[in-house]
Amino acid sequence: MKEPRKEETGGPRWTDYQIDQVIGRVLQVGVLAAAIVTVIAGVAYLRQHGTEIADYRNFRGVPATLSSLSGILRGVAAGQPAAMVQVGLVLLILTPIARVALTLGAFLMQRDRLYVLLTSIVLAVLVYGLFWARL
After folding, report:
1. CA–CA gap between residue 85 and residue 99 (Å, rounded)
2. Which of 4, 34, 38, 63 could form a disulfide linkage to 92, CB 3.0–4.6 angstroms apart?
3. 3-class secondary structure, 116
């Protein structure tokens, strides 16, 4: 593995390989963390609700309190296993967004204006869709 080169500014310059390794590690850790949280919360949910009889005639979606990030966090604070499962899903959703943000940082370090612009647009669309878009 090559050592980072010093730029004219004196700071280290990461190689493409190093950037790929960091981004790959973030994806691995994000997916693993999401899986662990979801499995542990799922087991807690089953311990609490596993003996209930399922009603397949009437569909009941996620309660409205668990459809926003603030509601999910309140549910976690109250110890609700369903809210903890939602945290695992939020972690899973945030993982590729973190990848795009890290990629944006890499393009900024490389001073690649075109890819900074394109990645900024992608990140803006993802953040908009996650926080503000309501279908």
Report:
1. 22
2. 34
3. helix
**Pairwise CA distance, residues 32 & 34, whole Å:** 5
How many Cα atoms sit within 13 Å of 28 on the Cβ side? 6
The domain locations on the chain are: 14-131
Per-residue b or e along 60-91, where b marks 16 or more CB atoms closer than 10 Å to that residue's CB: eeeeeebeeeebbeebbeeebbbbbbbbbbbb
Instruction: Please check whether residue 88 is in contact with residue 38, taking contact to mean a CB–CB distance below 8 angstroms.
Output: yes
Cβ atoms 69, 109 nearer than 8 A = no
Give per-residue pLDDT as tens, 74-114.
999 998 999 999 999 999 999 999 999 999 999 998 888 99
CB 7 within 8 A of CB 13: yes
